[in-house]
Amino acid sequence: MKNIKKYLLVFTSLWLFVSCQEDKATFGDLNAPTNLTITAELVGKTAELPNGDGSGFVNFTAKAANAISYKIIFGDGETKNAPSGEYLKRYTKTGTHIYTVTVLASGKGGVTTTANIDIEVFSDFNDDEAVTFLTGGASKKWYWSASEPGHLGVGKNINPLDPNSPNHIPSYYEAAAWEKASSGDSSCLYENELTFSLDNGTLKYTLNNNGSTFFNTAFQSVAGGSAGFDFCYSYDTSGTKTVNLSPSESVVAANGVPGQTRGTMMNFSDGGFMGYYIGQSSYEILSITANRLYVRAVMGGNPALAWYHVFTTTKPTQTPDVDFTNLVWSDEFNTDGAPDSTKWGYDLGAGGWGNGEAQTYTNASANVSVSGGNLKITAIKSGSTYTSTRLKSENKYEFTYGKVEVRAKLPFGGGTWPAIWMLGQNYATNIWPACGEIDIMEHKGNDVNKIYGTLHYPGNFGGNANGNSTTITGATTEFHIYKTIWTATSIKIYVDDLLYHSVANNNSLPFNSDFFLILNVAMGGTFGGAIDPTFTQSSMEIDYVRVYQ
Questions:
Q1: Tens digit of each residue's pLDDT (9 = 90 or more) over 539-548
Q2: 191 part of the active site
């Protein structure tokens, strides 16, 4: 037995030796690069400017025998692969600074050789006008421009060097005016007071967050939080930060399109940030005036995203909603039978209704009735077709401005498309979307519990409409209150008193004349989507419809 073990040991050793020899043969000779040299040419260097001309540009060249690629670690936190060994680097930290640069030369099989050099670089980037705008020459306070749509937004951060690529706009999301004020989870954002000041020529910054900071959920652990969504946490932002300006090297700056960016970066010391915590301390100034500041910052830990902030020097005040308390029209649905003909009429027929819908609208009692204190609009499958009802208050009750409340439970089933909405009464002569449309509630049976609020008008209609959505629980099993508050200055859409969409109204929009109410359940179509083949019937039940002025 001992001899067997001995022979096995010899065989294993021989196999390992042959295996290693074969691996080496695969790569060839594993020789580390030799004679590695690094040269650094400071752009604009002269006898009078030994550390460069202030642009911060340095041309690096690395050479070594047997090297097939190079990696350069620049000493300022940036590392780049340089297959040819050549790279033009721009150092942006203002002043004269010494950087230790490390080059890794890689040979066959990944064997590396390393060398270092120290370089002293001068960068004198400045933006005196931006500093004057930020500080007013001494000290100036800035606030979130909460009344401005898009004061907080997010878009993609890509690098195609394509001027037509939307990497300079918040293409994914833009906050509505005062959106974060609707909940205590987020309202602390608008309590921020940002102060920029000059101290012996040095730009300084303080953030007064009044004790709470609005955190992106990716960084909730920084505040010891666990909400699982963006949330206001207690957080100490005391202390004065230094702000260094540097030239922007973002993808927006690389595009080189005039007007997309100012090209100036603000770099805050000691983890400073501009009110919304996204794990970033460097912000690119896209535009700035004496009273408006628009910045962009790549999200910390996720370079695919860029956040956008808008600030103003006059603290916005939220005008209280007009308190519509006078009930001027309602239907409580307390009388069993057909809907009240003094309040409701019908749209009848098929034809897709402009959206490829599958149902035929009828006034049959099977599709619409009042019983037990509720209106029921029922979509029914009949063979290979569907029937339903569309009620409207056209020519019976039309109004301008007010508060509309509808308490409803929605139908279930893939393909159902219930809607509570309003249409401009002049639609026959002012063809949609010029007449305007206000969708107080839409729901897809294929995406249960996601509620949509949308406005359609010229320039924003169909797939490009001005809308938002929110998610609730029990949309098809419980009653919820769907509401809009419509004034001459805004249209706000709620579910259960949660504001989730707001649009500023003005005289250029078609929302300043009479509208009428519509209640319907559609099937399929461009919004409802595929209809579940097992669907038979389902109802939208409405407890009441109330209009206040």
A1: 999 999 999 9
A2: no
